[in-house]
## 1
Amino acid sequence: MLYLSTTMKGLEDIAMNELKTLGAKDFKIMEGKIIYHGNEHFFYRANYLAKTINRVVIIFSMENFENLKDIKRIVLNSDLCFKGTFGVTTERHGKHNFTSIDVNAIIGEALLQKCPDTKVKLDDPDVRVLAWILDSLFLLGIDTTGISLHRRGYRIKKHPTSLNSVIAASMIRISGWRKGILVDPFCGSGTIPIEAYHAFKGIPNMWRDFAFKRISFFDEERWEKTKRSVKIKRGEPDVYGFDSEKKYIQNAMENVSRANAKIICGKGRAEELHKNIRNVDYIVTNPPYGLRMGNRKKIFKLYEDFARELEENFSGTIMVVITPHKKFEYYFDVLEMRNVLYGELKARIYKLKI
Ligand SMILES: C[S@@+](CC[C@H](N)C(=O)[O-])C[C@H]1O[C@@H](n2cnc3c(N)ncnc32)[C@H](O)[C@@H]1O
């Protein structure tokens, strides 16, 4: 079966590697998208376990087209059929003499024609039909996820600049951490430590629901079997989170507890990290950017002081950091750098050796 998953631009290879470990194969990478093959039950497993993708879509057609008539023909010839209500959303890239709304309408028309037990419902339908028009390529599928997978459901306490959990999970993978001490010295609401803990233990996405439950071919037995097949790793990892703000540490502790994680959280300034912990193997972190919180000058001073602390007390540690600034490039050996588009913000993920 053909699938499409979306992820953050710049993290496609990380998502591909995770999907591979879950059993997917034959990958094609596009900007922010991965197309691949998996068995007919793969979507249960991917939604439950994947941490570096936003969505799992079953693809029913992937074909070149010239006009709207072709699109209608492709939909009519596809195997896509289901019972219940549906809505159509199209993402269009390229120059065309029609709009996404025209495409939605033509797909809707074709589906009503070929599947007798369906009805259009724009608000909260049973099935979300998703289409992509990428220049002359047309892709048609149905969403099995619902709200994006980055919404894990464990975050009961919010943070004004919390990190997207898909990015956090990808940073953990980039770090290469499997064992040893992992610390986030700017942990805010705890996203990075929680994602690290879940990655270590193999904890699934169990705080949320999935759209596949409302699709007419949902197989409850298969879903239960998928959940039972997940084995949580024994043993506890060494994961720590610190933040200079007491209220964020309290929030992080509540999120950690909700996420069934065992993480040591404490108050502390990153510029004096050694007072809280030593012999750190990995630092994975998301320091303030100085865009929304505080100003640039203050932030650069913080980066300088933090870099000095690392140099003096954490030589040899691997650090993965997300920031829009280049500062750390000048202080440490850059093992890897990638650009990621994070909402409107262009940020960089660095893997550095202190
Ligand atoms: C971008 S936020 C981190 C958000 C976090 N990744 C999350 O998902 O909630 C940066 C955090 O750094 C903290 N911070 C600012 N200056 C600090 C310092 N000198 N030492 C430690 N933490 C600091 C802020 O309180 C804030 O919570």
## 2
Amino acid sequence: MASDAGITSKIRVESLNKSFNVDGRRELVLDDIQLTVGEGEFVSIIGPSGCGKSTLLNIVAGLDSPDSGTVTFEGSPGVSALGRVGYMQQKDLLLPWRTVLDNAILGLELHGMPRRQARTRALELTEFFGLKGYESQYPYALSGGMKQRAAFLRTMLMDQEIVLLDEPFGALDALTRVQMQEWLLQLWDSLRKTIVLITHDMDEAILLSDRVYVLTHRPGRVTMVLDVDLPRPRSYEQVTEPSFARLKSRLLEPLREQKPKEAQGLAGKEGL
Ligand SMILES: Nc1ncnc2c1ncn2[C@@H]1O[C@H](COP(=O)(O)OP(=O)(O)O)[C@@H](O)[C@H]1O
Ligand SMILES: [Mg+2]
């Protein structure tokens, strides 16, 4: 892995285990996870639902702690996720009593930016996020996709070095999803943030990433790390190229080996 070749990793997860109490039993959710993300890399995590992806991101973000193992930033145990990580959780977590605009600026306000300045910054981006004209609406009046875009805007406004995205395009229709993927590619090309993305979508994982980690059915274990060596800058047209198809078939192998029920879930998403 490129990030292991002497370069300090931005994020390093080592020998991480996590279990939860389920019906009075201790159930292992994440099993010996190793994951490395170099500075400015785009890494995706793909795996069946319930395999612990969101749990892993919660731990990286510092919202939960592992039973054993470590998460280090910039090679130093002393560096914390706080103030470094922008996290868009799977649930949009918009505050129902705040408008779209005021939800978007929540993080900036919490960091002490005056409301007016924060609003001005957010307003510059609402069109790009497909929220223009909806700035004064409350979350209950929005579609699922719009709520997700508002949460996305809030995350990106924070302008952190590391961005964690948990299925950010999950509630979007296919066309909007492709537009947002291309938009994220452009954003990443220009800002070179370190991004970790969770997705169910193989095309999305390959198109966006430098590397894809495949997790097994629960307990989640890393079963494959796929290097994506497609040239950049990338665009959606690449999904039809033979090199893309070859990567996809390699990714399919470990995903097909999942339990039938889960594999069906993935197949449904991918139209296999
Ligand atoms: N706080 C919790 N307490 C108990 N079980 C949990 C908790 N959070 C997640 N789980 C369980 O851990 C497993 C992994 O959950 P999650 O990380 O959300 O999976 P994924 O994001 O891959 O779908 C699931 O079985 C889920 O029910
Ligand atoms: Mg999840």
